[in-house]
Amino acid sequence: MAAQGQGTGLGVVIIAPADALDQDWIAGLQSESSINVLARVGVLQRGIEAVQQFQPNIVLIDRPVDQLEETIHSIYAVSSNTLCVAVLPQQDMAAVRRLVGAGARDILVKPLNHREIIASLRQVVQMEDARRQRAGQQSLLAISRQKRAGKVILVMGPKGGVGSTTVATNLAVALKHVGGHDVALADFSLQFGDVAVLLNLFSKHTLHDLAIHYDTIDDSLMERVMVPHASGIKVLLAPAEPELSADMSGVQVNAIVRALRARYAYTVIDCWSFLDEVTETLMAAADQVLLVTTPEVPALKNTKQALEYFTRHGVHRDNVALVLNRFPSVKGVTLQDIQQHLRHPVQANLPSDGPAVTYAANKGIPVVQSHPQSWVAQSFLKLAAWIAGDNVETITQGPSKPEAFAAQSETKQPRWRLGMRKSGS
Questions:
Q1: How many CA atoms lie within 13 A of 145 on its CB side?
Q2: How far apart are the first and last CA of the chain?
Q3: Which has the least CB within 10 A, 83, 161, 349, 404?
Q4: How far apart are CA 251 and CA 330, in angstroms?
């Protein structure tokens, strides 16, 4: 099963013969921005499982006629809000009557043109939504958006310099890598955000555009503001001028986070290190807070104060995960001492790997892509897997392979490279 991420377009699952998953009309649908192909499946039972998992708006079924009727019944049994569209190899009125009786909303006949398919899918959804409106029911897109409300991860440090932005950027790319879902990265370091620099991105549109239109955020505005990155994530950049952050309110922040949660499976938020209305709003909205610290006394002192602050302000202990950056490092504090001092378990560590991380930062490429086999990159991937719900060991005192800890030479080219600047929308 070839799965795609969950996006904001019309969610579609395609069930076709295993040797026919690369037909031109399927490729055409995948290239259409308004169509979100959630999965292409060549085995019927796996197709039913994909429908149950993704709860798509529409299933396109290209199978022999004798399998179509039973497949439609099976789909409605696991996803009552999904609409079925059948594909026939040729005109067959007897088959059409059977399939309509089974619940098919449209019957398409080969050869297929992907634009004609898109027009059919839109008409099917429009007719269903009109029926739902007459019955006082929610539209299909509203239902699917509710079902795929995403997870918000807030990354912050108790002081500057602990590497929280590096953690946020690499975590977002790693989540895209391990899950394949739609991932957003939002820079809420409002005055001096560095996400754009670390990802080598530029756009005239920033978080400020959403803030001033917080009560009318729609898909069109989000599409203009979110900047695509080569890794597949979408990025919301910090305001270009520091003074634009002065009037940011908790109401605006809440609206922006809600909009991101509704559209992305994961939203990673990079936040500045001091506590104000913006930070408190983000903490309250987040499903998971990653508090990034380093094995030095000043950082650990601030970390303890931050944990105590979280307790006083109602942030549940289980929602706060400590991420120990640059550990192990030379002559640093031990893990046991850190956990005893903070009275909070360390969830994950990210090893010190100066050459690889510095190279990645200077090139504007996340280290999980510039040095994917390094110990630090593998640690980011494990952290992402844990965030995604996998039962994985995220504390490592050494690389999983002897050669993995050695950073690639600074003169060695990464697997891919961005241009010097990348234009946003």
A1: 16
A2: 33
A3: 161
A4: 44
Structure tokens at 117: 């398919």
What pTM did the predictor assign? 0.64
Neighbouring residues of 110: CB distance < 8 A, sequence distance ≥ 6: 87, 88, 89, 90
For the chain, list the domains and their CATH numbers: 2-145 (3.40.50.2300), 150-387 (3.40.50.300)
How does pLDDT run across 217-273, given as a tens digit for each residue?
A: 888 899 999 999 999 999 999 998 888 777 789 999 999 998 999 889 899 999 988
Q: Please list, in sequence order, all residues whose beta carbon lies within 8 angstroms of the beta carbon of residue 327, skipping any fewer than 6 positions away.
A: 294, 295, 335, 349, 350, 351, 352
Question: DSSP of 331-377, one letter per residue?
Answer: TPPPHHHHHHHHTS-EEEEE---HHHHHHHHHHT--HHHHSTTSHHH
Non-local CB neighbours of 28 within 8 Å, separated by 6+ positions: 113, 114, 115, 117
Query: CA angle, 161 as apex, 158 and 165 as ends, to 5°?
Result: 85
Instruction: Output phi, psi for 178, to 5 deg.
Output: -80, -25
Alpha-carbon torsion 153, 159, 165, 170, what sign? Answer: negative
With H, G, I as helix, E, B as strand and everything else as coil, classify residue 27.
Answer: helix
- Strand 266-271, strand 234-236: pairing: unpaired
pLDDT at 393: 87
